[in-house]
Amino acid sequence: MGRMSDTPARWTEATVYPDMWVDPADDPRHNDGPSPDGELPTLLDFLTGYRHTLRMKCDGLTPQQLARRSVPPSTMSLLGLLRHLAEAERDWRNWITDGEPLPKLYGERDADFDGAVADQAVVDAAYADLEREQAALDAELAAYPDLGQRIGKEGIAVRELMVHRIEEYARHCGHADLLRECVDGRVGQ
């Protein structure tokens, strides 16, 4: 007799390539035309793509599904990732300021994941926090088009910060792939 499992069956909305999230024509991360020219536009394009990927991994889920934790003892969840990246965007703003650091959004270490509970108000706040923090850092960094310019108390190069942001989103999009597949079987792309 086979064991019953709560593991969802793998599925996708894609019809052209069944191992993809969506068909290429429906993918919001790809626009018409060639990739951008220049280093800064390329970095911004990759960052935007990973931001879209994270949103896609969270789309269509209930607060309970977004708050579903991975394997114990980890507190990682899709909602936790939204909150964590909002916190990271805020922290990166602290890297480029000469003034006093902005306070943490969620409190002490790991509060971004620990406080990711299945409540619509928490979900709404996480999305709002992420959008606000992304926009704020984007606006501040727009004043520094020279990727080699060093800014903030620590003199970080704009290029280093941009690459770090891309790395952080890419890493967590990998986590989001696995988390989403555990929630409802939807496979990543």
What is the topological layout?
Layout: H1 39-58, H2 63-66, H3 78-95, H4 111-114, H5 120-141, E1 150-151, E2 156-157, H6 158-184
Antiparallel strand pairs: 1-2
Helix pairs in contact: 1-6, 3-5, 3-6
Keywords:
50% helix; 2% strand
Concise overview:
With 189 residues, this protein is an all-alpha fold. It is 50% helix and 2% strand. A two-stranded antiparallel ribbon has the order 1-2.
The side-by-side strand order for the widest beta sheet comes to 1-2
Largest sheet geometry = 2 strands, antiparallel
Mean pLDDT: 88
- Gyration radius (Cα, Å) is 18 Å
Structural description of this entry:
This protein has 189 residues and is mostly helical. It has one domain (24-184): dinb family like domain (Four Helix Bundle (Hemerythrin (Met), subunit A), Up-down Bundle), CATH 1.20.120. The chain has 6 helices and 2 strands, in the order αααααββα. It has helices at 39-58, 63-66, 78-95, 111-114, 120-141, 158-184; strands at residues 150-151, 156-157. A two-stranded antiparallel sheet has the order 1-2. Strand 1 and strand 2 (156-157) form a beta hairpin. It is flat, with a radius of gyration of 18 Å. The two termini are 35 Å apart. The mean pLDDT is 88.
